# Entry
Amino acid sequence: MMSTEPYWKTKSLAEMTTVEWENLCDGCGLCCLNKLEDWESGEVFFTSVACTLLDGETCQCKDYPNRKATVPDCIQLTPDQVETLSWLPPSCGYRLVHEGHDLYWWHPLVSGDPDTVHQAGISAKGRTVSEDDVSVDEFEDYLCDWPLTVLDDSAGHTP
Ligand code: SF4
Ligand code: SF4
# Structure
């Protein structure tokens, strides 16, 4: 009998098809924010300074297929990286599934609506400045912790 459970509950990250993998991204844009690393502790801190290619309103990459030409160090997430990247936000679809959690109600795969991630206040929408407008020396002035908001069940895991 076919499983009636959605694929993110039944497949591991490594078992997903390319389309399933891509759809697991909720479109929050949080991983496109610049981060600062403490050289001594290795701890990573978010800033609200966005990558030059991030559209601060839609939270989409402005040139995703060709982004490496502009941003060579843009990370292409893989299942292995989800395991090792400690800074992935707690709300990130990849992190949630990797850690054995369900997706929240606002994830587009659950709601059927790409806008709910913005409506729920999860995404970077309207909260960023572009790195084009800030010198690297000033990144420290933009440290922020809202991308790391720990979500509890009141934020609505699906049952
Ligand atoms: S943090 Fe995760 S869910 Fe959000 S845009 Fe990045 S990969 Fe997608
Ligand atoms: S190049 Fe695109 S996907 Fe990569 S960090 Fe920048 S906005 Fe995000």
